[in-house]
Every structure is written in structure tokens, then in C-alpha cells.
Amino acid sequence: MSVDPRILDWLRDSDPSLRWQVERDLAGEPAEVWQATRARVATEGYGAALLAQQGEDGQWEGGAYFPAGFFGSPESEMPGQPWTATTWTLKDLREWGVPASALGDTADKLDRHSRWEYDDLPYWGGEVDVCINAFTLGTGAWLGADVSRLAQWFPEHQLADGGWNCEAEEGDSVRSSFHSTLNALRGMLAYEEFTGDTALRDSRRRGQEYLLERRLLYRLSTGDLVGPFVTQFVYPNRHRYSALAALDHFREASLHDGVAPDERLSDAVDLVRAAQQPDGTWHQGRVLEGRRWFDVDAPEGQPSRWLTFLALRALQWWDAAR
Predict the structure, then answer these.
(1) Residue 16, SS3?
(2) pLDDT tens column, 21-79
(3) Helices (H), 58-177
(4) Which InterPro entries does this UniProt record tie to the protein (predicted)?
(5) How far apart are the C-alpha atoms of 283 and 305, rounded to whole Å?
(6) Cα–Cα distances in Å, from 306 out to 19, 103, 311?
């Protein structure tokens, strides 16, 4: 799939956190070009703004998953949740390509000072929620923390159908969730990419098969669309599943594993392709409610640079393999 030069120019005119990926993955720029742009993420724009908010204890807003003092505060009664605490901020910085060196001794500081809101557990050990553990696994591998025990948690808690579910630890479900499974897969893949440890590869591929059996979209039991969320694209998607978010993972996993795209992705590809607007862009969906440090993309209903980039990158990868 070729990219309209006007769309490419529009995507380039963006924060370094997006621009370097556009240069590398869509424009095919030489490594020295996109690497120079990537080096700016920690010192300019969104990346620098988030780094500037870090506390002396290594945390953001004094909390692991929620800001300190959140529970019982007026904010806890509002829709959504804040996206400003440590886990969410580190997830953004990692996915934007900030080098771990820019965070200095953050891993050690979090080991000493940060505890989960659930049972006051130590940060790098994770807790009981698979999505939280997935974010922590990927981020810990990026920052060089010892998350080897947390890595073992994933195959130990994989459900019989091959996926994961955040509600399983409370005994509320024995069936996997699209959301939880995708988050687990992304965390496991990040762990392998950053550490080179392939111990989770079989578990990850079994989890990927859970989604592939359902063609990323459907209930296995009825063949119906699993839910409207699969068609609702939003950036940042935080923890939300969509066909686009799933394709983004399968593209990365395919390239990492050196395998061709699975044909069972085709329905999700068609869905993403059909969402392109007449102007060549993809539009922002309903932004997740809750306080954030600042907006990093378009408001709802407007052309989204991030979604357009992610969609074009996935479609380019798929079409190139045809």
C-alpha cells in the first residue's frame, strides 16, 4: 500500500515520538535520519514533558497505577481514571522510543519506593491483574529491572483456552478476554525483545493462537463480532482492544519471529482498511475518560496522526507480504 505524499508530510509534521517511527516504517529513511529524530524524544516534546514530571522517588504523581491519594478523593468518583501515575507514564515513554538511559536509576528507585495499590506489593514483582503485570513486564525489561519471576507468572496463569483474563484471579471467569490477552501478548513480546529471553515464546504463541482462531474479531461459539470495541480505534488506547491494536501486535510479532502474516488476520485487515476516510486518514474514536498530562493526539472525530500511522504501517506490512 503506497502512502499519499501529502499524508506522509502531515505525519512527519508531528512530535518526535511519532515522527521517528514515520521516518523508519513508512518513509524508509536511512537509519541515521530516524535515529537522530528518535534521540530527540527524551529532550523535546511529549517525551521530555513526561520526564520532567518524575518525582524524586522515581514515581509519577507518587503512585504505581493511580496517583497518591486517589482513593477516597473527589477524582475517584469521576468517570474513567487518571492516566498520570507511574505505570501509564512509563508505558508511554517506552512505546515512544525513549532510551532507558534517559531514566537513569528509575528501576532502582521504583524497587525501593513504589508499591502496588493492591496489597502493598513491591513494584517489579507485579500484582494479580494480568494487564498491569503485562505493562510492568515490558517496562521492567526495558529499564533493566529483574522481572524474571514476573515473566514466569504468565504461563502459570494462562487459561485453558490459551488466553488470559483480568477477572480470572478473582474466580469470576475461566474464559479469556480479548483485552487481557492482547495486553499479555504485548508485554511478553516486549520482554523477549528487550532481554533476548525466549522462555515465554511458546506461551505467547499459544496466546496468539487464541486470537487467531477467532480471526481477531469473533466469538468462537457463535461467530458473532465479540463486541463493538473491535471497531473503535483510539489513541492512546491504554488497555483497550481493537482490531487495529491487535494487528499492530501481530505485525511486530511477525517481524520479530521472522514469519509471514497469518491468513486469519485478513478480516481484521479488511476492517481497518474500510475505516480509512475519504481524506486518506483514520479518525480518532472516543477518547478514554480520565485526567492525563496533556493531549497527544486529535480530539474525537478528527483525523488522528497516530491512528493513521498505525493503520498505514499495518496495511503496508500486510500488502507487502501479498
Answers:
(1) helix
(2) 999 999 999 999 999 999 999 999 999 999 999 999 999 999 999 999 999 999 999 99
(3) 86-95, 106-113, 130-143, 148-156
(4) Terpenoid_cyclase/PrenylTrfase (IPR008930)
(5) 9
(6) 10, 24, 9
Q: 216 and 263 in contact (C-beta within 8 Å)? A: no
110-155 tens-digit pLDDT? 999 999 999 999 999 999 999 999 999 999 999 999 999 999 999 9
Is-contact 212 181, C-beta < 8 A?
no
| Three cell numbers written together for 299 | 480530539
For the chain, the domains span 1-40
Helix (H, G, I), strand (E, B) or coil at 55: coil
3-state DSSP call for residue 304? strand
Give me 31's grid cell: 537509519
DSSP 282: E
User: Residue type for 85, please?
Assistant: A
Name beta bridge partners: 225. 218
Region of 232 on the Ramachandran plot (φ > 0 left; ψ -120 to 50 alpha; else beta): beta
Q: For the chain, how far is it from start to end, CA to CA, in angstroms?
A: 11
- Answer whether 139's CB lies under 8 Å from 176's CB: no
Going by C-alpha positions, the residue among 71, 198, 189, 65 that lies closest to residue 127 is 65
| CA-based nearest residue to 177, from 150, 155, 206, 210 | 210
Task: Cell 474479531: give the residue.
Answer: 217
* Cβ partners under 8 Å of residue 208, min gap 6: 185, 250, 253
